[in-house]
Recover the amino acids of this structure.
């Protein structure tokens, strides 16, 4: 009968095996971490896309109603038209709300005053939120979050085709027929391995442009909104 070998592994063989196992484990961990970072980044981008799409839809619907006055009896339309603030009104005696806060709902000629502007995001230093304020309320309702600091621009075109302007004087507010919205939103967390460095040229009035730059994962949008109720 053949005897079984009782010889074990040498110390050198054990060390080689441990070293190879370590290399395999480090490689697997590195791949896992890379996939995890990519997954987290994609999750943030999807969240940005969803909130951005919803917020822009609300803003666009509001702007299309600017100046709505079916009987032409009330002073409604744009009240402020600046590069990062827009305020406008419309007759809203159909929305089931007491917009004038006088205790009457849907009274004749009731006006709805809406303002969009940026404010600091206290949860994410360095970022802003786009807020919607209605009917003179003190508090804004967060419409779009994670806006890059000051990266919101409204550009206005007038009925005579002139523009885009980033500020419209009071005597020309009734001539606004189109608003272009430029917005840059980014991930709240800086991810150096997944950064996306890019710059965009944005209208800055009088035919000039300004450059927006970012190194974070981000989304840039430009949306054109026609103010159908402002056309005479």
């Amino acid at each position: 009968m053949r005897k079984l070998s009782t010889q074990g592994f040498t110390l050198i063989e054990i060390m080689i095996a441990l070293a190879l196992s370590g290399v395999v484990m480090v490689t697997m961990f590195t791949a896992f971490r890379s996939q995890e970072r990519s997954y987290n980044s994609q999750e943030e981008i999807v969240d940005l896309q969803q909130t951005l799409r919803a917020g822009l839809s609300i803003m666009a619907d509001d702007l299309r109603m600017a100046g709505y006055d079916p009987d032409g009896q009330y002073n409604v339309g744009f009240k402020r038209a600046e590069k990062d603030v827009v305020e406008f009104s419309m007759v809203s005696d159909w929305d089931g709300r007491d917009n004038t806060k006088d205790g009457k709902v849907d009274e004749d000629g009731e006006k709805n005053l809406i303002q969009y502007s940026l404010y600091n995001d206290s949860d994410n230093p360095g970022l802003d939120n786009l807020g919607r304020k209605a009917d003179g309320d003190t508090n804004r309702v967060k419409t779009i979050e994670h806006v890059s600091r000051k990266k919101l621009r409204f550009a206005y075109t007038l009925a005579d085709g002139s523009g885009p302007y980033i500020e419209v004087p009071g005597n020309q507010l009734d001539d606004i027929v189109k608003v272009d919205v430029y917005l840059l939103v980014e991930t709240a967390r800086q991810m150096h391995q997944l950064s996306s460095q890019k710059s965009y040229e944005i209208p800055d009035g009088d035919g000039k442009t300004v450059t927006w730059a970012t190194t974070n994962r981000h989304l840039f949008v430009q949306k054109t909104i026609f103010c159908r109720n402002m056309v005479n």
